[in-house]
Amino acid sequence: MISILIPKLGLTMESAKLVRWLVRSGDEVAEGTPVLVIETDKVTYEVPAPAGGLLHPVAPEGKTCSVEEIVGYVARDQEEYERIVKQYPSPEVEEAEIPAGEEPSAVPSPHPPSGARFKASPLARAMAAEHNLDLSSITGTGPGGRIVRADILAALGEKAKVAARRIEDLADPGTGSRKDIRESIAIRGVRKIIFDNMFQSVSQSAQLTLHTEASAEALVALRDRLTTDGRKVSFNAILVKTAAMALRLHPKINASVEKDTIQVWKQIHIGLAMEANDALIVPVVRTPDLKAIRDIDREIAELITKLRGNRLSPDDLLNGTFTITNLGFADIDFFTPIIRPPESAILGVGRIVKKPVVRKDTLVSEARMALSLTFDHRIIDGAPGARFLKTIKDMIEDPLLLIS
């Protein structure tokens, strides 16, 4: 048998919460198939099966597990699976299985005491999880009060009736002053990290935002020249390279505050803000000032692939020194980005759009883009911040400056 372990995703990781199993005991899985989801204080990660075979979980959902803790097994065949189940019974097996021919002595109360465990078939559990049904509110009609498929269907029917009544209530003029909760979202996991970081950012720094606009004609032309085999380099890759080279010329922007000391960093590591599952994630591109734009583009593509597959590790998010956030995809021009602690600055990038511009007393159509720089005014004065933003603008308008 092969053990399923909580992986060590980063140098500082010590534990993770087992959020949910993606498969049930006895399911056949292939090597590399995601089988469970874990959550650290930085990322949500899908753990793949270490081998092919029959899976058996031994750790319950919701448990906080230490790194390298065994949470399940993969059996090579049915015989080995049955041996594992006997040796390592899981909560699901204990709750769901009733010996053949055994009749319960009593039917459980429709309202079990708080903390009680509920007997339910695997199918019923899966259906309840899919529809966000609380098993404690459902009376089982199966053997021994076991919750079965028919009970879930009945509960769904009742839920639909309640929803219909709510719609009728909302349509009733007499309820116009009501304020009903549509959804309650717990502030935890990645959302809790964002919650704390943003509060820390705005409450413990003096943030100032400067805005400017740049011609994007040369940027678009550079992207076209970098296109090979029909694959276009992303604008973000060029912008990461541009910001990195500008930070070389303005090293004091590449800094953080630690207690009463300003730390100016030797290395340049640029974070690129991305959205995933209603959360803001900022993977970091390492030393882009030392890399070619195509290499940066490949690295960003790999980070996006890992993000979409819940495969980012905490190390992918550590030790950024500067961040770029691009809202051009949403047709946003200027905005006020918020610094990501403990960094001291962040660049906001708007859309590229054609605008009328006066060139040599002639009105012409030109691709333009908005740039917004937020920096910590405690350690970066307005003039140095403005010069840094102008350097980025100049490099966008004349990419030859990237190699000068």
Would you give an account of this structure?
There is one protein chain. Helix content is 30%, strand content 25%. It is of the alpha+beta class and 404 residues long. The protein folds into three domains: 1-97, RNA polymerase II/Efflux pump adaptor protein, barrel-sandwich hybrid domain (OB fold (Dihydrolipoamide Acetyltransferase, E2P)); 104-184, Irregular (Dihydrolipoamide Transferase); 189-403, Chloramphenicol acetyltransferase-like domain (Chloramphenicol Acetyltransferase). The strands form five sheets. A six-stranded mixed β-sheet has the order 9-18-17-16-12-15, with helices on one face. A four-stranded antiparallel β-sheet has the order 1-8-6-3. Strand 17 (345-359) and strand 18 (362-376) form a beta hairpin. Helix 3 (122-130) runs parallel beside helix 4. It starts with a strand and ends in a 7-residue tail after the last helix. The model is unreliable at 92-116 (pLDDT under 50).
Straight-line N-to-C gap: 59 Å
Give a quick account of the main beta sheet: strands, pairing sense, barrel closure: 6 strands, mixed
* Helix coverage percent: 25-40%
Strand content: 25-35%
Q: Say which CATH homologous superfamily of the largest domain is assigned.
A: Chloramphenicol acetyltransferase-like domain
